[in-house]
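Incident log, support desk, overnight shift.

02:14 A customer reports that sequence design results differ from what the structure should imply. Their input is reproduced verbatim below. On-call engineer (initials T.W.) acknowledged and began investigating.
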């Protein structure tokens, strides 16, 4: 699975349209802490959102593609120890399906609840990932 393999570029495409929008809104509004609790804007080492900054042409190239922005932030968060959860060494506990929605409980650190949504094309996507103490919103919360 992309999440466990830290393939956040691919994982981005497993998010529902609403979760992708929530990720974009968090970045565009400078509220990086909605995705990475405790991380202030422009203070994520190894990311385009670091204090060091980045060459404008590279920033323009990455920032033009939200999947690349998501990947950049999540990879840097893993390296800096800021990712709020991990799918490493996880097991699926329960799944409850109700029409075009489902809830999956995942034994992880911390215990995770994944809300899933089926798109009009029939593909299941992650609508949100929540854990005890998570904020409100998408994709986390």
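02:41 Re-run completed on a clean worker. Output:
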């Amino acid at each position: 699975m992309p999440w466990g393999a830290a393939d956040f570029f691919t994982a981005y495409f497993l998010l529902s349209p609403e979760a992708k929008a929530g990720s974009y809104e968090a970045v565009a509004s400078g509220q990086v802490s909605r995705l990475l609790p405790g991380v202030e804007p422009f203070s994520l080492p190894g990311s385009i959102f670091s204090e060091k900054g980045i060459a404008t042409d590279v920033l323009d190239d990455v920032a033009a593609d939200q999947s690349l922005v998501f990947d950049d932030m999540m990879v840097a968060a893993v390296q800096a120890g800021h990712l709020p959860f991990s799918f490493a060494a996880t097991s699926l506990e329960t799944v409850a399906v109700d029409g075009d929605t489902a809830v999956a409980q995942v034994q992880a650190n911390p215990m995770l609840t994944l809300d899933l949504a089926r798109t009009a094309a029939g593909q299941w996507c992650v609508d949100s990932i929540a854990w005890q103490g998570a904020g409100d919103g998408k994709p986390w919360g």
